[in-house]
Every structure is written in C-alpha cells, then in structure tokens.
Amino acid sequence: MSTLFLFAPVFLIFEVWQLVLSERYLGIKQVARRADPRSLGLGEVTAFFWSITLIGYWLWMLLLLATSFGRVHGLSLLTVSAIGFSLRRGNSLKWMLVILTFEGAVRVGLLVSLCGMVWRRL
C-alpha cells in the first residue's frame, strides 16, 4: 500500500474546511447583503495555507492517476473539480455557493469512499 493514500484523510478535512470557508465568504447572509466576497479579505496566513494545500491537493490527485488502486478516484476528483470550476466561472455570485456546496459534497463522498477502500485494504 502506497503512502500516497495516507493523505486522503488530510484532504477530507481540507474539503470540509473549504465548505466552511465558502459558507462564510459566500453564504446566504452575504448574498442577501449583496456583499462582494473579494472585498471581505482573507487573512494572509489563511490564504497562504489554503493556496499551498490546493496546490498539494491537485498534485495528489494527479499522482493518484499513476496508481492502479486509486486511479478511478483520482480521475473522478479531477473531473468534478474541472466541471465545478467551469460552472463557477460562468455563473453569477448568487449561484456560487450552490455550486461550491454540491461540488464539495461530491468530493467529500469520493474521499470517504477512498478512505474506506484503503481502510479495508490495510
């Protein structure tokens, strides 16, 4: 079993963190106030760790493609992320939270599935 799969719980926690942040910056209250989330500002330390983790997450998904055990999950995670990105670019701010929540829920499900498969294989 590759140590690559040990990162799945870390990225599962990261996905939940992203859902919390998206609710904070793009939540119902923000939409009702018509606030632009870009004007709220993200803390420098939070932005740094979020960016580094996103880069690591994408590299991890690409590395999953090289393994026979996690190839389907890696491809599914990349596909969901690409579709979500393309939908977010084409929609208004009002639909952003809906798309982010759905996309995050699908990725969480894929990561839980991967964690379960790895756990059964140990």
Which descriptors would you attach to this protein?
mainly alpha; 78% helix; 122 residues
Supply the number of structural domains.
1
Task: Name the helicity range.
Answer: over 70%
- Average pLDDT: 86
**Low-confidence parts:** none
Query: How many individual β-strands?
Result: 0
* Run of helices and strands: HHHHH
Radius of gyration (Å): 16 Å
Q: In percent, how much strand structure appears in the residues?
A: under 5%
Distance between the termini: 8 Å
Bulk shape: elongated
| Sheet with the most strands, sense and barrel status | none
Q: Which structural class do the helices and strands define?
A: mainly alpha
Number of helices: 5
Write the layout of secondary structure elements.
Layout: H1 8-26, H2 28-33, H3 44-64, H4 71-90, H5 93-121
Helix pairs in contact: 1-5, 3-4, 4-5
Task: Give an overview in words.
- This protein has one domain.
- Helices cover 78% and strands 0% of the residues.
- The chain has helices spanning 8-26, 28-33, 44-64, 71-90, 93-121.
- Helix 4 (71-90) runs antiparallel to helix 5 (93-121).
- The mean pLDDT is 86.
Summarize this entry quickly.
This protein is mainly α. The protein has helices at residues 8-26, 28-33, 44-64, 71-90, 93-121.
